[in-house]
């Protein structure tokens, strides 16, 4: 019988390589761990990763056995994250973020801007200002894969500082001293109210009566909230003078609450244009309530060609 040299080659060379991989924590194991931890469900994690349920279970078991820990409690058909697993999540995310950054540096050796570009933008920027600029970037450089996360200003700054985002786009000042900040646009705030509010027919904001009104405001940490509180200080008022009845985490939620009540809100003029044109709300300008849209970068990190392409487009 003629020997199957290809099979012999696979036995000699492939098995030691696979055995070595079983002895080390791999990036794939970390991805699987995070997928399971975020969903607390093996089957759903397997579907999201396009893997079999047995492959996901085996990866988790290998990770736990190798390091002598238990990341999940098995409760019937359910699983629950242990304290060890919860503590490990942040480290696993950080390792994967660094690995993704390293991959992007290698991809950046190409002359044409390409590879992944991770953005984290605050809500007003992401919803009303950024989208046409991202379309323009993709038209110019189709090899760039865009990933956009949306939160408030504080969350965007945190993402850039922690390496979870390459660039941040926010609506005002940030308290992260290690980040570089570049103004790329200007915005202004307006007072918003229901179309039938008693102030709807006024030509200007009666500042002296603001403290007597009910309020619906964005949550602390948002650029809109911070800019409004700064404007109040310039009017001789403080945030404590205007305790909000509601604090809501999105522009749309504030608009909906204002339109259905006699309460006032403050948003970007960009966020209210459609609702005002439809007759749902009215707005009044807040004189001097302007703020910058800013680009955040971390000077410690490699600036890829994809990053440079978007920065050039935004600052141009």
From TrEMBL:
CDD domains: PBP2_CysL_like. Keywords: DNA-binding, Transcription, Transcription regulation. This is DNA-binding transcriptional regulator, LysR family. The keyword Magnesium does not apply. Belongs to the LysR transcriptional regulatory family. InterPro entries: LysR_HTH_N, LysR_subst-bd, WH-like_DNA-bd_sf, WH_DNA-bd_sf. It comes from the Bacteria. Residues 25-82 form the HTH lysR-type domain. The keyword DNA-binding applies. One of its GO terms (molecular function) is transcription cis-regulatory region binding.
């Amino acid at each position: 019988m003629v020997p199957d040299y290809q099979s012999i080659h696979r036995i000699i060379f492939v098995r030691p390589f696979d055995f070595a991989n079983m002895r080390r924590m791999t990036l794939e194991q970390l991805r699987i761990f995070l997928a399971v931890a975020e969903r607390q469900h093996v089957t759903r994690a397997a579907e999201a990763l396009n893997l079999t349920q047995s492959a996901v279970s085996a990866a988790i078991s290998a990770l736990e056995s190798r390091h002598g820990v238990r990341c999940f409690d098995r409760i019937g058909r359910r699983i629950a994250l242990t304290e060890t697993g919860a503590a490990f999540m942040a480290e696993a995310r950080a390792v994967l973020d660094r690995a993704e950054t390293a991959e992007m540096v290698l991809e950046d050796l190409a002359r044409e801007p390409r590879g992944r570009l991770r953005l984290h933008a605050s809500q007003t920027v992401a919803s009303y200002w950024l989208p046409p600029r991202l379309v323009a970037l993709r038209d110019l450089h189709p090899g760039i894969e865009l990933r956009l996360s949306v939160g408030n200003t504080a969350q965007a700054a945190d993402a850039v500082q922690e390496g979870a985002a390459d660039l941040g786009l926010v609506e005002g000042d940030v308290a992260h001293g290690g980040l570089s900040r570049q103004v790329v646009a200007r915005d202004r705030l307006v007072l918003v109210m229901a179309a039938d509010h008693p102030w709807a027919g006024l030509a200007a904001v009666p500042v002296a009566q603001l403290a007597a009104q009910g309020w619906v405001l964005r949550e602390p940490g948002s650029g809109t909230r911070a800019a409004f509180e700064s404007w109040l200080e310039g009017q001789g008022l403080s945030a404590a003078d205007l305790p909000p009845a509601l604090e809501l985490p999105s522009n749309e939620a504030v608009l909906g609450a204002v339109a259905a009540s006699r309460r006032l809100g403050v948003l970007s003029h960009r966020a209210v244009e459609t609702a005002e044109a439809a007759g749902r709300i009215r707005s009044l300008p807040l004189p001097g309530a302007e703020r910058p849209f800013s680009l955040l970068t971390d000077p410690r990190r490699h600036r890829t060609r994809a990053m440079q392409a978007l920065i050039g487009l935004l600052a141009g």
